[in-house]
Amino acid sequence: MSELFDCRDAFAQTLEELAASDSRVVAVVNDSVGSTKLKNFGKRFPDRLFNVGIAEQNMVGVGAGLANGGKLPFVCAASCFMTARAMEQIKADLGYSRYNVKLCGMSSGLAYGELGPTHHSIEDLAWTRVIPNLTVIVPADPIETRSAMQAIACHEGPVFLRLSRMPVPNVHPSDYQYEVGKSVRLREGSDITLIANGVLVSRALDAAERLARGGVSARVINMSTMKPLDRAAIVDAAKTTGGIVTVEEHSIYGGLGGAVAEVVATTCPVRMRILGAPGEFAPTGSEEFLLEYFGLTAQGIEKAAVELLQLVRGA
Amino acid sequence: MVHAAKLGHPGGDLSSADILATLYLAVLRIDRLRPEAPDRDRFIMSKGHCSAALYSTLAAAGILEQSALDTYMKPLSALNGHPDRNKVPGVEANTGPLGHGLPIAVGCAMAGKLDSAAWRVFVLTGDGELQEGSNWEAAMAAAHYKLDNLTLIVDRNGIQQGDFTESTIHLEPLADKWRSFGWNVRDVDGHDPGALLACFGNLPAAPGMPTCAIAHTEKGHGVSFARNRPEWHHHVPTAAELEAAIRELEEHAS
């Protein structure tokens, strides 16, 4: 089994590197120095770590103000609180005002497991991807997390970077370079396409491996940029593979599945399966338990792909 | 402008007009030809609904073309009902939803402090707006970070959209609230340019503390039939009311 990594380590290390090379870089947190792994950042750059306390609306507004004052703020907090609590600030102060602030939503999806639905963040992609000017990125592994951090530091405009705390293997080669708006075809395939992002990309790859054993050739696309969406890759998948399964650690409403379906339905309609949390508050359980509960495993993805393929071929 | 657009918030425009005029014409260090220069003083209009007052002041200060005022809220105009910093020179933030200006101002002031910059940060909020909790989050942070380069001006006209503030959710004792949050508080007559100049002339009021100037104002100031009347929050004046109001204001000015 491949080695697993918490993407927050790559996040924190990269932020320190960015801060060391660019004096504009500052961090803003909401009493979340530990959970964002920024203790060392605070030691190295004590005057550039602003802890505003448990106050998310102020945290995002402060980010906009720091950008106004010439800084490059990375606002880091649990995704559930950052997005839900400060949505209007994200809309008006960042998206509409177009302030160059990087929101880093930590422990997203079902990462908080047993802590329950108050702490799950399976609505954040639906909320953020409707905000004009806001770029939305969901890295799949530490390599992509690091590269995406470097890319957004050079990208002018507000960004929502959605990170997890669930350990994942690296799915990209070490020299991979993330590009805003460009998806990555991680596996070639001609029968069906699996489009995933975030911590579930490695599971989609495992599912493709299982499908291959059953004689099904599955393409795997890492759609790490949710907005702007790589429409061309989606249209190509619809045209050349004839069926698409989307996989996300998010509600099946309004996230990756919705975004892909919007493109597919208006360009090249093909059958789809949208895998994610099925529009209900999760029961008690660890992240691993809940992913299994909702069928977000290699087996679950394989099963959905086989069923879809039968439907497509039978039609 | 409000009469022509058939939309707007004239009551609050008139309560904040003297504050805005004093700031832009005598206090703020902003190069009208380079309103985006990094070393400018920042002014953040948190009460974005009083855009007519802000746009008029920006025009009077030479930052915005006077002719732009005629397009206020017309289709495709840069002058939206609430200000857009990407379309209107001199606007720092796209405000409108209340309780946004002070947090942004706190972030600006933090940036200024980090650079030991000479530029200062001013923010104007309404008084009813202080019912938004985000202001008090920002108030705590401003005191904690000792942002003495930050001055908040509260347009204390006593009236919010639906009623008087004190019969909606009372704000008093307002000065005590700010003091208890660690701010240096000054009371000032918000319609007396001399008093406002004196208030803004020696800042910070106390080293290491943010300043809160509670500007006592009157909604609909200068217009006898609008003054201190809640319905003038967003009442659009008729042609006759407009003429009478202009006559009163001109008489007062002369």
Structural features, described:
The complex is a heterodimer of chains A (about 325) and B (about 250). Chain A is globular. In chain A, the strands form 2 sheets. In chain A, strands 2-1-3-4-6-5-10 form a 7-stranded mixed β-sheet, with helices on both faces. Chain A has a 5-stranded mixed β-sheet with strand order 7-9-8-11-12, with helices on both faces. With about 325 residues, chain A is an alpha/beta fold. In chain A, helix 1 (about 5-20) packs parallel to helix 7, helix 3 (about 55-70) runs parallel beside helix 5 (about 85-95) and helix 9 crosses helix 10. Chain A starts with 6 loop residues before the first helix and ends with a helix. Chain A has 2 domains: about 5-160, Rossmann fold (3-Layer(aba) Sandwich); about 185-315, Rossmann fold (3-Layer(aba) Sandwich), CATH 3.40.50.920. Chain A has helices spanning about 5-20, 40-45, 55-70, 80-85, 85-95, 125-130, 140-155, 200-215, 230-240, 255-265, 285-295, 300-315; strands spanning about 25-30, 50, 70-80, 100-105, 135, 160, 185, 190-195, 220, 225, 245-250, 270-275. By secondary structure, chain B is α/β, with parallel strands linked by helices. Chain B has one domain (about 1-255): Rossmann fold (3-Layer(aba) Sandwich), CATH 3.40.50. Chain B has helices at about 1-5, 10-25, 50-60, 100-115, 135-145, 165-170, 175-180, 195-200, 240-254, and strands at about 40-45, 120-125, 150-155, 185-190, 210-215. In chain B, strands 1-2-3-5-4 form a 5-stranded parallel β-sheet, sandwiched between helices. Chain B is globular and about 50 Å long. The interface of A and B includes residues 59, 66, 93 and 98 of A.
